[in-house]
Amino acid sequence: MSLFALGELTLLLAIPVIGAVLLLFVPRRQTQALFSLALLASAVTFLWSLKVFNLFDGANGEMQLLELIPWMPAFGIEYLIGIDGISLFLVLLTTLLMPLAILASWSVKDRVKEYLIFMLLLETGMLGAFVALDLFLFYVFWEVMLVPMYFLIGVWGGARRVYAALKFVIYTMAGSLLMLVAIIYLATRYAQETQVLTFDLLRIYALQLPFEQQSWLFFAFALSFAIKVPLFPFHTWLPDAHVEAPTAGSVILAGVLLKLGTYGFLRFAIPLFPDAALAAAPLFVALAVVGIIYGAVVAMMQTDIKKLVAYSSVSHLGFVMLGLFALNVQGIQGAIYQMLNHGLSTGALFLLVGMIYDRRHSRLIADFGGLWKQVPLFSALLLAVTFSSIGLPGLNGFIGEFLILLGAFSVTPLWTAAAATGVVLGAIYMLWMIRRVIFGPLNQPENQKLTDLNGREILILAPILALIVLMGVYPQPFLDRMKPSVDLTLKKVFAAQAVAIHRPDNGADR
Fold it and tell me: To the nearest 5 percent, what fractions of the chain are helix, strand and coil?
C-alpha cells in the first residue's frame, strides 16, 4: 500500500513518525534544523487534523473515517481506527498542543535530536490511543506512550527526574496489566459466544455479561484509567511528574495524557460494562468530589507555582469524572468540554511558568512579586489564563463546569453542592497565587532584570488565548458535534440496563 493510498487517520498517525525518522538523518550539531523539521512535522499534523475535522459529519454519532487492515488475523487482531464526536476534539487538542510544545522547547540544548524524536513519537502514541477501535491496538498505543514520556521526564527533567519517571511508569503499568488481562478475557468470551475471535470494540460492545463478570472487568479497566486521570487516591505520581518534567512535557502531560484516562472511562469502561458502571457511579462521584476538594486544598499549601498548578489538575479532573458518572447528556458533554478546557488553560499555565522560570530560574512564589511593573504582557496573559482556569463567565472554563454541575445536580444534589465548593476554592488559591506573583512591590533585584515575552512566546500563547475566548462565548459548534456520539454512548448504557432488568437469570447473576 502506497503512502497516498492510506486513509486520513492513518496519515495523521504517520506524519509524526515520518518526521521522527527524518530527524535521524539531520546532523546533531544542526540544532535549528532539528527544531525546524520537528516543528514542521507537528504543524503538518495539525493541518491534517483540520482536514479530518472538515471531513467529519457533526450530525452523525457513529464512528467515521473507519480504516480496517488485518494485522494478526490468526489472533483476531486488526488495525481498526475511527473517530466520533467524543474523540474528534481530543485529537485536535493533541495536534494543536504539540507544535506549541515544540516551540516552547527552543531552549533545550542537550540531546536535542533525541528529545524531538521522543516528542513526535509521543504524539503518534497519543493520537493512536484516541482513534484505536481494536482493544489490542488501543493497548499497544496506550503502552507506547509510556516510553517517550519516561525519557522526556527522566533525561530532560529536574533534579528528581529519575524518581519521577520511574514512579510515572510503575503506576501506569500496574493498572495497564490488569486491563490487558481484561481485554484478553473479553476477546475469548466473545469467541465462545460467536465463534469469532476478535478484539473489535464495536463488536464487543454487543457482548452481554452477567453483573459479577462486569464488575471484575470494570474494575480492571477502571483502575488503569483512574491512575491515568489521576483520580483520588491514585494521584500521587502526578505532582512529581509535573514538577520534574521539562516545560513541554508538563504541557503534554496535563493537556493530553491525563485526558486519556477520562476518555478511557467514556469509550471503554462505561459502555462495555454498563451495569457495573451504573452500580459504581456513586463511588466514583464520591471519589471525584473528594478529589476536587482535596486537590484544591493541597494546591493552597504549595510554595512552588508549578506544583500548585499540578495539584489544580487533580481538582479539575475531579470535575470531569463527576460529569462522566452523572451519566446524562449535560454531564458528559460538560466533561468532554472540560477536558478540552483543562488542556488549554492548564497547558498555558505550564507554558507561562516555564517562560518565567527560564528568566528567573525559580518557581517559588516567594521569589516573585510586582511582576506587573516589570513584565506587564506576561502578567496580563497569566491573569487571563488564571481567569480561564477558575471558570470566569465568558471564558471556556465556565461552560464546562456549568454543564457538569447542571448534569450532576439532577442525579446527586448533595455531592454536587459539595463539588461546587471546589469552584470557590479554585478561585481562592489561583487568585492568591496571582496576588503574590504579579502584584505588590517589585523588591527583589533579580526581578528588576526580567524581560517581557518575546515574539516566539507570544506566538505560542496566542492560539490558546483565542480558543479560550472562542470556547467561552460560542460553545455550540463544539457541543453540537459531541452530542450525537454522547447520545449513542448513553443509549448503550441504558439499553443494556433494560436488557439486564428483564433477563430471566438476572437475579442469579447479581
Answer: 75, 5, 20
